[in-house]
Amino acid sequence: MSMIHTIRGKLDSKCWIAEITGTDSANDLARNFLKPISSFRYKLLIDKIYEISAEGDRWFVLCHPTPNGGAATAKLTREQVNAWAKAQDIIRAAARP
């Protein structure tokens, strides 16, 4: 399941959305930058955490299912995202043969 998220921005501004995939020694958080499906519109997947940059602000969201079968986002703190990213690293390490 997914949802379309539109961010407000100007064509000359740095607006982007990146999926947080774990930790990274270079940037603290490992990111997979999404390609927009059209100007400022992105497809977000359920149960994924994203960093959003728009109009000079940056924040984190979790895309989650709603009771009516749709999808929504909830803001997360940097501390919540750091804990989740470290957990993803542990899960990946445990899955390696």
Characterize this entry briefly:
The chain has 97 residues and is of the alpha+beta class. It has one helix spanning 78-95; strands spanning 2-6, 16-24, 28-33, 41-45, 48-54, 57-65, 71-76. It contains one helix and seven strands, in the order E-E-E-E-E-E-E-H.
Which features would summarize this protein structure in a list?
97 residues, alpha+beta, five-stranded antiparallel sheet, 48% strand
Question: What does this protein look like?
Answer:
The protein has about 100 residues and is of the alpha+beta class. It has one domain. The protein has one helix at about 80-95; strands at about 1-5, 15-25, 30-35, 40-45, 50-55, 55-65, 70-75. The strands form two sheets. The chain has a five-stranded antiparallel beta sheet. Strand 6 and strand 7 (about 70-75) form a beta hairpin. The longest helix is centred in the C-terminal third of the chain and has 18 residues, at about 80-95. The chain is globular and about 40 Å long. The termini are far apart.
Q: What amount of the residues lies in strands?
A: over 45%
Number of E-state strands: 7
Note poorly predicted spans: none
Number of structurally distinct domains: 1
Overall helicity: 10-25%
Task: Please count the helical segments.
Answer: 1
Major sheet description: 5 strands, antiparallel
Overall morphology = globular
- Termini Cα gap: 30 Å
Q: Widest sheet: strand order?
A: 3-2-5-6-7
What's the helix-strand series? EEEEEEEH
Radius of gyration: 14 Å
Structural class: alpha+beta
Mean pLDDT: 86
